[in-house]
Amino acid sequence: xxxxxxxxxxxxxxxxxxxxxxxxxxxxxxxxxxxxxxxxxxxxxxxxxxxxxxxxxxxxxxxxxxxxxxxxxxxxxxxxxxxxxxxxxxxxxxxxxxxxxxxxxxxxxxxxxxxxxxxxxxxxxxxxxxxxxxxxxxxxxxxxxxxxxxxxxxxxxxxxxxxxxxxxxxxxxxxxxxxxxxxxxxxxxxxxxxxxxxxxxxxxxxxxxxxxxxxxxxxxxxxxxxxxxxxxxxxxxxxxxxxxxxxxxxxxxxxxxxxxxxxxxxxxxxxxxxxxxxxxxxxxxxxxxxxxxxxxxxxxxxxxxxxxxxxxxxxxxxxxxxxxxxxxxxxxxxxxxx
Length: 338
Fold this sequence. Notes:
The chain is mainly beta. It has two domains: 1-158, Methylamine Dehydrogenase, Chain H; 225-322, no CATH class. Helix content is 5%, strand content 46%. It contains two helices and 32 strands. It has helices at residues 8-18, 264-270; strands at 2-4, 29-31, 36-37, 45-50, 56-60, 63-67, 72-74, 83-89, 95-100, 104-107, 111-115, 126-131, 137-141, 144-148, 153-156, 162-167, 173-177, 181-184, 189-194, 197-198, 202-207, 213-217, 220-224, 229-233, 237-242, 248-253, 280-285, 297-303, 306-311, 317-321, 324-328, 333-335. It is globular. It starts with a strand and ends with a strand.
């Protein structure tokens, strides 16, 4: 069941305001300075992607790292000391880096351009980046979602900040927010509900190869086929990823986890970014068993916190954690912080 989103009028108002922001694409900042190392980041790693050349890109609190299979290059070490949460390579081959507090950076392989609220961005904390079918770039921020058409921003204000954005096969947009999950058909926003109740603190949304929508957050892991909801766990789920074989990977909190010795200052620092109540686990749900009443679930590893997940072109699974980035080749887990 869906009902009209109460934020719609607010969205329309800020949308019209967002169109009049200046074009920031002319402003350039420092060019790339090489900072090469044999090890990757040693702090929180939020997002991992692979570009068309096979390089692995890592958004971490130490900067944006590029891994060419041999060494790591900190692309942003001389550009900004910001903490990075998101990374995307667009269809033109440009890279976008979302930061917390410093907006978003556009990198063309040689130089950078920085976009902030001064240029029309909805917020300077950019937690996710998405490119739609027409080439528009979407940014999820603490102030809402921003759509960038190459010239200006159009903003959609939402409560709780935007954690995840996707466009489904029908052209509808799904937004996972700190409040709930919203659907936008180009005219109207609706809130996705089950049994009359919205989902809360939605951290991740994906569409699988069959067109099902998966949602993860405070309410656990859910699959929606357009009419029916299926629940797989009620434990908190931070990230969802589908691999080439149709397996679903999640970073999920254990129901009976430990506190992992996090200090009070660490808990405060991480507050609002992810749950720190217990042990975090990397799970794989076997694709062939997803229609079963009890699907086959494999626990791969556990960490104090687990974030973004990626399958590379060789079939290995990369995942970010509170202490860097890891790669799982099906039998061995490699810790790149060392």
